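Each record in this resource describes a single protein on a pair of labelled lines. An example record follows, reproduced without changes.
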Amino acid sequence: MTTVIVTGATGLVGSRLLPRLVDAGFHCRALLRRDTELPAGVSGVRGDLADPDSLREAVEGVDAVIHLAAVFRTDDEDAIWRANRDGTRHLIHAVTAHAPQARVVMASTSNVYDADAPRPGREDDAVHPTAAYPASKLAAEALLRDSELTWAILRLPFVYGDGDGHLQAIPTLAERHGLHPAHTYSVAHHRDVAVAFRLALTGAMDHRIVNITDDAPVTVYEMAMYAGRPIEGSAQPLTNPWAGRMDGSLARELGFKPTVPTIHAAAREGIL
């Protein structure tokens, strides 16, 4: 049985990924800073990405690492860099020293792409992060790419589903940040985030950066509608139609096929 340790296991993505990994037959560990209730079949291991010495026990004997831990919902940019760049560095050093055979699959973000690009972002495009979170994730990507480990980096879009509250926050975010109702985002359901990580654990994405997205982008207007708090439309032109969009062609070439092809399918299935 493949043993996988997951960082960020109690977060929005990790808490929904873990039970799906268990159901798929993986033996799962969760890196925890404090005692936390975990899904059945998951063992907790104490450790902190800020404390390199605490990571040895966590990674010894694992076959793979899924690195989800990240900080982004804060105005403390130093905290973002410490967690996302420095924490990744500590994890890489621990795996290199104590589990060098392990495959490391790291979650990154679509926000690294240029918001003024002339098309959806592709993995080989120049990147242009404009905030600490995507910049720190890009730095973490570079650390992993430069390591001697077997790695894969999955750039995730707007992730939703399983009642996680992310979609429900869209009307507030639209108002706070002045999002155009016609602005579109690449999205993926938690179920397909799990599909992508399981595929990466097979080696299909080794030494690649891969965009993960479903089959159709969705507008802010539609997301607000599905969140149950409709917003006003607009006849004003959209100035940056490609911002927030990713090209998912490479993932499809490598064998990824979303089981929830669109947010409309998720609504019909009742899994928003």
The mean pLDDT is 96.
